[in-house]
Amino acid sequence: MNPTPWAQAADTVGAFLVFLGAAICLLGSIGMVKLPEVLSRSHAATKPQALGILLVLVGVELRLRTGIDAGTLALIIFFQLLTGPVASHLVARSAYRTGGVHADLLFDDLDEQLSEEPDMPRSSHPRPDPDREDAAPKDGPEDGHPPGGG
Fold first, then answer.
1. Whole-prediction pTM value?
2. Do 111 and 117 meet the contact criterion of CB atoms below 8 Å apart?
3. With the C-alpha atoms ordered 81, 83, 86, 88, is the resulting torsion angle positive or negative?
4. pLDDT recorded at residue 122
5. What is the C-alpha to C-alpha distance for residues 145 and 150, in angstroms, rounded to an integer?
6. pLDDT number for residue 69
7. What does the pLDDT read at residue 78?
8. What are the residues whose beta carbons fall under 8 Å from the beta carbon of 125, sequence distance 6 or more?
9. Contact 121, 97 (CB under 8 A)
10. Residue 21: per-residue pLDDT
11. Nearest CA among 122, 84, 102, 98 for reference residue 39
12. Which stretches within 38-132 are classed as H helix?
């Protein structure tokens, strides 16, 4: 049985979108390896990957063309677009708070928020200073072994 011209066109466009999405994901992966800093890598991990997965899944739907597959792929797209940027934001914020960001930022809105917290040092890249007298004590004895261990 020969497919209709619309089905052939949908298959062709679907295959093109899958290829294009895979190429964008590959470029994002290369960016994650090649870029020098956490914030740049976070950008490369999120933006191209979100667009790439969106194109791949739309291409797959054009190839499958059933209602249950469309619903499943819509849920996958929704959760990927919801969780990817949030996870990337949390990684970038964690890197900033622990001093892993070494770039000169154009806008540093987080510095004002962190300097208002009483337990955070007033620097743009907070990092605990072990030589300070008021630094938090270490867990366990000085030799690094847990107490009561043998």
1. 0.67
2. no
3. negative
4. 43
5. 9
6. 93
7. 94
8. 96, 99, 101, 102
9. no
10. 96
11. 102
12. 38-64, 67-97, 109-116
Joined together, the tokens standing for residue 5 give 């011209």
pLDDT under 70 in the chain at which residues? 1, 103, 113-150
Q: Give dist(CA 121, CA 127) in Å, integer.
A: 8
Model pLDDT, residue 145: 52
* 142 contact partners, CB below 8 Å, separation of at least 6: none
Take residue 35 and report the two structure tokens written for it: 């870029």
Amino acid at the residue 28 = G
**Residue with the two structure tokens 């072994």:** 145
Q: Counting beta carbons within 10 angstroms of the beta carbon of residue 100, is it exposed (0 to 12), middle (13 to 18) or buried (19 or more)?
A: middle
Amino acid at the residue 143? D
| Residue 97 burial (10 A CB sphere; 0-12, 13-18, 19+) | middle
Are the C-beta atoms of residues 40 and 67 closer than 8 Å to each other? no
Contact 106, 71 (CB under 8 A): no
Asked if residue 52 lies in contact with residue 24, where contact means CB atoms within 8 angstroms, the answer is yes
Q: Give the closest residue to 85 by CA, choosing from 34, 120, 45, 57.
A: 45
